[in-house]
C-alpha cells in the first residue's frame, strides 16, 4: 500500500496546472486565485490625513502644555473629511479644527485630540504636549505608490477585496476555476426524486462531495449516477472525461464481485497511479489517468468517501491553482483521551477546541456519517501507534 503523502505526489506529478484566466469584478473575486501581481496605483492615503477628531497643530508650539498651564492657540480654519486639501496661511501659534480622515494642511505636523482641549472655536486651550507625527497619517502610511498589494496566485479574501477597492480597481484577472465531474457508482443508489424501497439508498455522496467542491470555488460540470455495469461506467468516463480537469468517482474500488472501477480503468486503457492507500477509512481508494485527465476513485462508504476527498482533493486543487493557501490546515494539538492501537494509519473524526482534541462519538464506522456534524477535524493516528491522553497529535481541519 502507498502512503498518503506519496499518493498525493503521484497525483500532482501528472495533474496539469491551470493557465486559463478570466476577468471578474472585485465584487465576485473573493475565493478566487489572482492571476497576476497587482501594484498600487495610488498611495493610501494620498494626502496627509487626521487620525482623529481634534486640532492640527505644530508640535513645537505646544511644548510644555499641561492642565495647569495650557497653551492657547488661535483657530484659523475647520476642515472635515471629504473637504479638498487646503493650505491656509500659517500664522505662528495657530491651530486648525480637524476631523478624522480630513486632509492636514502644511506645515501642521500633529493632531491633538479634542479631549485634551477646551473645544474652543476661535481660540483653543491645549492641555497636553504632543510629538510631531502623532495622529498624523502620512502619505503612503498604509500603502505606498507602486507597492505590490496582491501576489500572483494569492487567494483573494475579503480583506484583499477592500485593498483593491481602496485603489479604485474594479476588475482583476483570476485563474479560471477547476472543472470537476462527479460520478457515483452503485446499483443500490437512487435519486432523491424516487421513492425509497428495500435494498435501495438515496445517493447522498453526490451531494456531500459536490457541496465540498463548490465551497472550494471549483466548478461542478456534472454530478451523475451510474449502476454497477462495466460497459456503462466505461462509456460514461470516455464521453465525459475531457469536459473536466478532475473526475471524481465513488464506489466500486474494493475487491468485491461488483467493484468494477479497476477493471474499467484497464478496459478504457487508463493508467492506474495507485490502488489501496495506507489509511483507514477509505483504504481501497484509487487514482487513475485517462487521456491526461486525473480520476480520483474514492470509496463508496459516506464517511470514507469524504475522508478520501478531504485528504486528496485539497492538495490536488492547491497544486492545480498554484495556491498553497488552498491546502488543508493542520495543527499539533493535545489528546484528551487514549486511542487504542491501530495496525493501519487511521483518520478519526474529532472535535478540537483551545488546543485540545477529543472524540465526540464512539461510532467510527465508515458507513456512519451523521456524527460528523459534531466534529471539526480528523485526528491523524500513525499505524501501530497507541496514543495516550496528553500526547500531541496532528489534526486536519474540515474546510467547510
UniProtKB/TrEMBL annotation:
Catalysed reactions, semicolon-separated: adenylyl-molybdopterin + molybdate = Mo-molybdopterin + AMP + H(+)
Family the UniProt entry places it in: Belongs to the MoeA family.
Protein name in the entry: Molybdopterin molybdenumtransferase
E.C. designation(s): 2.10.1.1
Record-linked SUPFAM superfamilies: MoeA C-terminal domain-like, MoeA N-terminal region -like, Molybdenum cofactor biosynthesis proteins
Pfam families linked: MoCF_biosynth, MoeA_N
Lineage: Bacteria, Bacillati, Bacillota, Bacilli, Lactobacillales
Organism: Candidatus Enterococcus ikei
Cofactors (names): Mg(2+)
Keywords, alphabetical: Magnesium, Metal-binding, Molybdenum, Molybdenum cofactor biosynthesis, Transferase
Amino acid at each position: 500500500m502507498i502512503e498518503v503523502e506519496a499518493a498525493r505526489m503521484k497525483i500532482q506529478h501528472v495533474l496539469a496546472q491551470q493557465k486559463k484566466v478570466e476577468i471578474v469584478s472585485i465584487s465576485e473575486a473573493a475565493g478566487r486565485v489572482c492571476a497576476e501581481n497587482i501594484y498600487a496605483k495610488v498611495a493610501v492615503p494620498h494626502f496627509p490625513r487626521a487620525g482623529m477628531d481634534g486640532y492640527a497643530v505644530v508640535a513645537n508650539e505646544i511644548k510644555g502644555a499641561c492642565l495647569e498651564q495650557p497653551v492657547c492657540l488661535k483657530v484659523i480654519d475647520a476642515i472635515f473629511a471629504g473637504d479638498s486639501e487646503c493650505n491656509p496661511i500659517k500664522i505662528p501659534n495657530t491651530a486648525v479644527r480637524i476631523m478624522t480622515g480630513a486632509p492636514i494642511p502644511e506645515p501642521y505636523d500633529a493632531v491633538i485630540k479634542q479631549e485634551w482641549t477646551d473645544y474652543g472655536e476661535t481660540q483653543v486651550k491645549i492641555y497636553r504636549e504632543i510629538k510631531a507625527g502623532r495622529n498624523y497619517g502620512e502619505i503612503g502610511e498604509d500603502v505606498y505608490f507602486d507597492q505590490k498589494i496582491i501576489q500572483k496566485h494569492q487567494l483573494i479574501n475579503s480583506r484583499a477585496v477592500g485593498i483593491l477597492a481602496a485603489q479604485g480597481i474594479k476588475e482583476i484577472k483570476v485563474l479560471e476555476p477547476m472543472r470537476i465531474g462527479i460520478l457515483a457508482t452503485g446499483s443500490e443508489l437512487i435519486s432523491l426524486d424516487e421513492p425509497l424501497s428495500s435494498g435501495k439508498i438515496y445517493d447522498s455522496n453526490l451531494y456531500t462531495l459536490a457541496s465540498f467542491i463548490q465551497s472550494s470555488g471549483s466548478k461542478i460540470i456534472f454530478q451523475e449516477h451510474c449502476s454497477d455495469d462495466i460497459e456503462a461506467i466505461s462509456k460514461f468516463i470516455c464521453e465525459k472525461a475531457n469536459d473536466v480537469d478532475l473526475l471524481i468517482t465513488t464506489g466500486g474500488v474494493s475487491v468485491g464481485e461488483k467493484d468494477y472501477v479497476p477493471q474499467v480503468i484497464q478496459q478504457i486503457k487508463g493508467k492506474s497511479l495507485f490502488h489501496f492507500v495506507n489509511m483507514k477509512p477509505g483504504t481501497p481508494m484509487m487514482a487513475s489517468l485517462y487521456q491526461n485527465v486525473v480520476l480520483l476513485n474514492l470509496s463508496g462508504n459516506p464517511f470514507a468517501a469524504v475522508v478520501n476527498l478531504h485528504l486528496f482533493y485539497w492538495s490536488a486543487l492547491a497544486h492545480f491553482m498554484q495556491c498553497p493557501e488552498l491546502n488543508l490546515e493542520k495543527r499539533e494539538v493535545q489528546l484528551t483521551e487514549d486511542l487504542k492501537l491501530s495496525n493501519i494509519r487511521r483518520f478519526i473524526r474529532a472535535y478540537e477546541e483551545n488546543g485540545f482534541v477529543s472524540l465526540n462519538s464512539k461510532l467510527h464506522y465508515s458507513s456512519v456519517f451523521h456524527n460528523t456534524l459534531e466534529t471539526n477535524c480528523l485526528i491523524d493516528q500513525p499505524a501501530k501507534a497507541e496514543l495516550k491522553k496528553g500526547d500531541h497529535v496532528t489534526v486536519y481541519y474540515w474546510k467547510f
